[in-house]
Amino acid sequence: MGGEPTTAASRGGARTRRGATATALLAVAASALSLLTAEAVLRGAERFGVAPRDASARSAPLGASGHASALGIPDDALYLRTAGGGLALRPNARVEIRAHAVSGRTTVVRTNALGFRGGPLAPRRAGVPRVLVLGDSVTLGDYVDEAETYPAALARALAARGVAAEVVNAGVGSIGVDDMLPLLAGPGRAADPDLVLVGLYLNDAQRSLFVAPPERWAGRSRLATLASVRLGRWRAERAWTAMMAARQPALDAFLRTHALSDTGDWRTDAHAFDREVAAAFADWGYAWSEAAWRELARGVAALRDEARAQERRVAVALFPVRHQVEAAQLHDEPQRAFAAAMEGLGVPHFDLLPALRDARREPLFYDHCHLTPLGNRIVAEALAGFAARALDGAD
């Protein structure tokens, strides 16, 4: 017989290799057991309603488990990511949001086949114009009932003026003006509106930063989902850092030209108001810079061009921040920049600040920007005449 003779050294090497293999297998088994245990703990936490400390607003499909997810992650029952990395609402969804972080209310959000809030779109009727309202969370209004949003109230306000128009709520939370373009080019085109009304807010210059819904690879695993969300948060933090670095020159310019007050009430002290603007430069405060309006103008120009390519009219309304509404003095620098930018683009535009300031003693806001049902109704009544003229091509 052939082969090398067996020695003590070779037998020892074989035992060493077998020992290393066994150790590796034990390590793999221990890791797998740890992962399975973590998965079971997370599922148990969800089952018994024990949420992590950073849990976000809870939501779940109606008729499903009867309780909300307790993982504290963005819920993909309502949102999905677009090919361009933005957000859209999931078509044909029906979601209950309990104790909404904005209003504290329980609301139901339903979407139609195009992914817009509301019921199915009926076929176009002769003589009945259709308005598609693009916007962010202020427009979507998932913190109030469907009938309490300003697009729904706008339909009623138009009807009171004798204009029996359909108004479609195409708002999506956590988006900017650039994210509205694919909505208009895709499902917006299918909606076949006569007028595209853009509800612009002061922080819409950037594509809003968000923690994306879990990746597809996460599947049904709670542990993989949590890992995916952690990855999404890391990406969002990196994007935030890059955004703030890009805005620093604009913030420096603002600080050079405005004297800030460390004390004082922003409602009555102009320097204290400027302090609030500077503190909010990562959000609505950026609208006090020329750079923001260059970015917003580019976004609106793209929407204008897409609407014209579809042979539709387009108009834009600007929402203020609560600080502008409630301050004793008028701080309308963004509104003046908005008017100049829209006139340069040849786009009909409407400033909502005066109407809201006229009613500033009323409870108009839940927070710095999201409107109460009363606030939405005032906005709709202010917009009705503008929208009617835009439908007629008069603006």
Strand content: 5-15%
Q: What's the story with the biggest beta sheet?
A: 5 strands, parallel
Shape: globular
Structural class: alpha/beta
Number of helices: 11
What is the CATH H-level superfamily of the domain at 127-392?
A: SGNH hydrolase
Describe the model.
The strands form three sheets. A five-stranded parallel beta sheet has the order 7-6-8-9-10, with helices on both faces. It has a three-stranded antiparallel beta sheet with strand order 1-4-5, with no helix packed on it. It has helices at 8-47, 137-140, 150-160, 177-191, 222-257, 270-279, 290-309, 322-326, 333-345, 353-358, 373-392; strands spanning 58-61, 79-81, 87-89, 94-98, 107-110, 130-135, 166-171, 195-201, 313-319, 349-351. It is built from eleven helices and ten strands. α3 crosses α11 (373-392) and α7 (290-309) packs parallel to α9 (333-345). The radius of gyration is 27 Å and the shape is globular. It is α/β, with parallel strands linked by helices and 395 residues long. The chain has a domain at 127-392: 3-Layer(aba) Sandwich (Rossmann fold).
Features:
alpha/beta, Rossmann fold, globular
Outline of the structure:
The chain has 395 residues and is α/β, with parallel strands linked by helices. Helices cover 46% and strands 12% of the residues.
